[in-house]
């Protein structure tokens, strides 16, 4: 449970929000105007979650830096919650996009860039067949639908605390021992217990029990959890997960949307995982909306038996029930190629991971110097500061220990000090343009935050 906010922290949040309001008058006014025409003030409801009390309105972004409409500058470690992991306006993506915009964006016809992209996805992630979608959410939905089609089973198993986008089956967590709704979101009239199973991450016995009924089409999981703080995977868990899913005829979908920060082929390639399907999105086309899912040879062959490749003379149903008129459009494919060829390259990953290591080491040093009961996690180019002494084992430990108050205070402080992190937890992502100076800027601001809370006796 989230603890009630101690008065001191509450006062500090007030102070930081007042400071934010004073230094962001134009964003404040824009946000006020936005209420008139957007359901939740901004074009996406996610844009309302910022700890300053309202979002900054972006004027422009380049590399790892953003400038807002009030002229404030930020080092951006949020990077659009991973959509901007290539850095803002990377040259290769911009050039590819402009070139393709002039030649037509969406024709529902393949372009030759797709041949290069398909080959590269197989090479990186190790699965032979790919489908492009317009988002990671859609890729997950597509993968789940195929899993249900070929297994004939209704349920999807996820781990408590997961997030896989707007996927109904994955909106669940364990609350009071039962299937509840993640972060207490609205159940939306759906009987989640009928379509979902949820167990704690790293819990092999619970997984074994849940899959033994053989009513689960697929397990959908990140290779380690990144959306509830960062929850590391226990030794042997992946081997057990693969063995149990195979034994029970359950498909394994690995969602690499965030963990692609591990390296060019994500955590899957780095650790030799063998998923039946793999999903990614967000950064994969450099910020142009896109998702991908790959399938194994076996999954593809089982699917082709149900929905054969089309013979145009026979007007058979060849519809997969997966949407996406704009999926795989020429613009997306062109920018995806640019990303894979020039941006998310092994050399750039080396720089990004080195900077994430630097940030994590520096933050650990600050934490240790002040003997604070906090810790720092890292997955490749991604790091996370958590207000607990040790990494959590599962979602239950996060629910029990999460310090929402300190997170809000830290995030509001960061924004006032020119640092952006994703508003949902304290996650830092590096892009190829992130520099050691940017990391150093964070270290200084984080040290000042520690001074602030210690002076206040928190
Ligand atoms: N999978 C994971 C692991 C994610 O973190 C997210 C979004 N945070 C998604 C899927 C969904 O991505 P999108 O909202 O871009 O569809």
Automatic annotation (TrEMBL):
GO terms for molecular function: transaminase activity. Keywords: Aminotransferase, Pyridoxal phosphate, Transferase. Pfam families: Aminotran_3. InterPro entries: Aminotrans_3, PyrdxlP-dep_Trfase, PyrdxlP-dep_Trfase_major, PyrdxlP-dep_Trfase_small. It comes from the Bacteria. The keyword DNA-binding does not apply. This is Aminotransferase class III-fold pyridoxal phosphate-dependent enzyme. Belongs to the class-III pyridoxal-phosphate-dependent aminotransferase family. Its cofactor is pyridoxal 5'-phosphate. It comes from Ollibium composti. The keyword Oxidoreductase does not apply.
